[in-house]
Amino acid sequence: MSLTRKVTLSAIAIVILAVCGWSIVSRARYVYPAPEHQSAFFRSYDPSRVIEAFGCKQCTSVFGGSQGAGAGRKFVSLQASWDREFVMKTGDQTGLMAALRQEILFGLAQSGARLTHDPGEPQAQDPIQGFQLRYHSDQANGIVAVGPIRRGNPDLLRSSQDQVCMESVKLKVRIAERWFKSGEDTANGGWPQLQ
User: pLDDT tens-digit profile of 11-22?
Assistant: First the structure.
């Protein structure tokens, strides 16, 4: 084998090793989704109990939800949503929104998170429009969005004994959170986007 060929093969091998090494080091800097990479509030929050308290017990309801997470260099992006379509008493929307808000505030306080943006009581606004709360914990910034309340499928009312005093509604509750590997990054790391 000629000297030129040996030098060329050696150079190619060095380039391949350098690219592989850079890729390994680059990926090692990523923060990957894991239970310890979520705030205590994100791990524990579930609005189902409050929603079920306002729903007709004998009526049909539809529910769904999803959770997702993505890795990043500085933070993990987390998303959760709960979709409910159910029958409730006409006029109870304000009470439902107030109960959800109180439960969220309680959950945030219990988990050690603090509010960074609170638009005020939903009763002061149109309760059907819903609300958003922003929070911060040691290593996370998050947003909780509730509502808006929308008209649901009228076929769900057929299961209600008292269709006059009941209505079918749809409600979506969403949480988006960024969990940072360094607590100091939360101040300038930005806020997650709700999807």
Answer: 786 777 666 656
